[in-house]
């Protein structure tokens, strides 16, 4: 709770602002997505998520700089540093995210993720991975952009962790575009690896409160299109890891 004592007015003001935004985006969700036919729901939820995340990023006074083509459909693989990644990427383009099952039970963000149509995968139960892969293919066939974090967990950003290949099967088939992305953050009043990145044994609420106390968060996202993906899933994981790692140089 140190953030409360360092910048109490900023933190309290942003918490009140966040509560107001939750009311607004809930009303907008009902209007935009509540009465859509099932086939249209995927795109409607992705567009709602873009609208909602743009509003939320204003709370953090966040700015985003991009380089390379911002994808609009196909599969995007990206490094993973924080829950802020979802806000940043979704604000740039309507997308469907793939997340670990545990996110479903997170306060606030779990509810947010479910409304957005996130595809949840239980990596501890291999029998469910095939189901998630089918869901990814279904979304791709509808023309959606699907975003995967193949590291399987978040990190402090010093390096890109090895990629898991289990969810990359749809990318081995020549049915759509494949993109790589890399996110990096900057803050003026703290340590990115400890105060923006969400990893190790960090707890969500204290981390979020501290982040809300920061003056601003700057994100840089670099994209590249992968022209000739390997048809072998494990080789593709290595290829994509090299591509994402190279975007940080």
Descriptive report:
This protein is an alpha/beta fold and 249 residues long. The protein has one domain (2-246): 3-Layer(aba) Sandwich (Glycerol-3-phosphate (1)-acyltransferase), CATH 3.40.1130. Helices cover 45% and strands 16% of the residues. The chain has helices at residues 2-6, 8-33, 38-59, 84-92, 109-115, 126-141, 192-195, 204-212, 233-246, and strands at 63-67, 74-78, 96-100, 119-121, 145-148, 178-186, 218-225. The protein has a 7-stranded mixed β-sheet, with helices on both faces. Helix 2 runs antiparallel to helix 3. It is globular and about 55 Å long. The model has no long low-confidence stretch (mean pLDDT 91).
CATH fold category name:
Glycerol-3-phosphate (1)-acyltransferase
Strand content: 15-25%
Distance between the termini: 36 Å
Strand neighbour order, sheet with most strands: 1-7-6-2-5-3-4
Note the overall shape: globular
Number of helices: 9
Quick one: how many beta strands? 7
Question: CATH architecture, please?
Answer: 3-Layer(aba) Sandwich
Describe the sheet with the most strands: 7 strands, mixed
Secondary-structure element order, as H and E? HHHEEHEHEHEEHHEH
Mean pLDDT: 91
CATH level 1 class label:
Alpha Beta
- Low-pLDDT sequence parts: none
